Structure formats: C-alpha cells, structure tokens
C-alpha cells in the first residue's frame, strides 16, 4: 500500500455565529491542508509510470479550488454556510476533490498548530 501526502497553505477568515466561544467573532486562520492519496498499485504506463499519481497532478486539481474558494476568502460566503467549521470545510474539500482524484483517501485540515480535523469515508 502506498500513501502520498501533499500539503497546501492558505489564509482565510470565518465566524461561527452559533458558537458560544470566541469563534463567533470574525477572525482568520493560516490553514494547512493535507491531501492524502492511498493506492495499492503503481501506474504501469505513460508519464506517471511507477507513480501512484504525479504530485503535480494533485497540485493542478487542488490549487484552483484553493484560489477560488479559500485563499484570502471569507468562508461563510464562499462556502455558503453560516457554520464553516473546520469539520465542515474538510468534508467540503473531500467531496469536491474525490471525483478528480479517485484515490483520494482523506483530507486533514489544520486550523491552528494544535487543532486539526481529518475527514475520510469509513
Ligand atoms: Zn476559526
């Protein structure tokens, strides 16, 4: 079994108006997104021979999504929710990437240095 991880950083703001914590106040995070791919086999032919998937292919799928919906964005607006929690965001990213990255295994989103969420299908 192979596991590949590619990480991306972005800055974004949100608020959680339903929360009783300070998260209800508009604020921002420097998010770290970790895209994990899992596969049993390597590709046997073509440009990706002996790879699971080219890291550049992962980037070419993930970066446009980050640019459109996440980096320097207000997540309550771009994700069209009044509760853009880190759990919600991780699942949202997974569901958007899965059709384009069939071997996608999980999305881990670090909200701070000490808080992160992983979403995967069980
Ligand atoms: Zn927050």
From TrEMBL:
Residues annotated as catalytic: 23 (proton acceptor), 72 (charge relay system), 111 (charge relay system)
Q: In which pathway does it act?
A: Purine metabolism; 7-cyano-7-deazaguanine biosynthesis
Q: Which UniProt keywords apply?
A: Lyase, Metal-binding, Queuosine biosynthesis, Zinc
Name the cofactor(s): Zn(2+)
- Binding of Zn(2+): at which residues? 14, 27, 29
Top enzyme category? lyase
- UniProt record, GO biological process: tRNA queuosine(34) biosynthetic process
**EC number(s) on record?**
4.-.-.-
Q: How is the cofactor bound?
A: Binds 1 zinc ion per subunit.
> GO terms for molecular function, please?
6-carboxytetrahydropterin synthase activity; metal ion binding
| Metal-binding is among the record's keywords | yes
Reaction(s) catalysed by this chain's protein: 7,8-dihydroneopterin 3'-triphosphate + H2O = 6-carboxy-5,6,7,8-tetrahydropterin + triphosphate + acetaldehyde + 2 H(+)
Q: Name one Pfam family in it.
A: PTPS
Q: What family does this chain come from, according to its entry?
A: Belongs to the PTPS family. QueD subfamily.
NCBIfam families found in the cross-reference section = queuosine_QueD
Which protein is depicted?
6-carboxy-5,6,7,8-tetrahydropterin synthase
Protein species of origin? Candidatus Criblamydia sequanensis CRIB-18
Q: Which gene produces this protein?
A: queD
């Amino acid at each position: 079994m192979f596991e590949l991880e590619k990480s991306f950083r972005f800055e974004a703001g949100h608020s959680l108006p339903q929360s009783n914590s300070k998260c209800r106040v508009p604020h921002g995070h420097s998010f770290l997104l970790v895209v994990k791919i899992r596969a049993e086999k390597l590709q046997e032919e073509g440009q990706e021979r002996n790879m699971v998937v080219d890291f550049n292919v992962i980037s070419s799928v993930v970066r446009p999504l980050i640019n459109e919906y996440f980096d320097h964005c207000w997540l309550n607006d771009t994700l069209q929710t009044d509760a853009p929690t880190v759990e919600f965001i991780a699942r949202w990213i997974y569901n958007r990437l899965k059709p384009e990255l069939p071997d996608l295994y999980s999305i881990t989103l670090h909200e701070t240095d000490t808080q992160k969420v992983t979403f995967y299908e069980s």
